[in-house]
Amino acid sequence: MDHQENCDFMRECACRQVKIIRKKLMAAKLPEEFSEATIRSFDIEIYDSQVSKERAATAKRIATNFIKKFDLMQEQGKGLYLYSQTKGSGKTRLAASILNALLKVHDKPDKPLTMYYSSTADLLAEIKKTFNPDSQTKMSDVIDSIKNVAVLVLDDIGVEKVGEWVEETFTRILDYRLQNHKVTIFTSNLEINELDEKYPQGRISSRIEKMTFPVQMPEEKIRSKLAQKENENLLDLLLE
Description:
Elements: H1 3-27, H2 50-68, H3 70-76, E1 79-83, H4 91-106, E2 115-119, H5 120-129, H6 139-148, E3 151-155, H7 164-179, E4 183-188, H8 203-211, E5 212-216, H9 223-238
């Protein structure tokens, strides 16, 4: 094989790999908005205050090492709990970046890594769809798939409307994942101990405390800054 053929072969392999990853991200239900998110591109400098920059830097370092030591994390069934009171502070973006990195680094043909991403509100809506008499899917099938996936990202836990059924459903899912050392990554506007205000029986917070390492994110909104930055880049393209 000459140099040109080798380059073409490498490009073809890289392209095929990108398509495989994209297909798996779609299967994992990761929003298209975050399909290209990476830990490396998680921008610490976009935050204004020094405290925010330091928290972002720490969170980024933890995320990087989480990927490097994922085999150990899996063995211990340890995930991450990314929290800050401020909406749009980068929690979801970092969680998605971790999911992307895990897929690229740890998903192997002989050892596939199953993943699933969902906001808690969307997950509950998906489960409730099975209550429809015309549904072809049983509630137990949805819950079992969530219970058994190797890596689960639950976004925005604590914002959903909570009743006895909701708390019981999440308890079933988390209890199984805790006992079977499944990795779960959460994002929330609440600290773990504040979850008791939403889940009064206290069973959710106690399980999350055992199955995750808490990571405090900056108390600074960056979503609008990212949108502005994207628009500036788009303007440059349109004015070429």
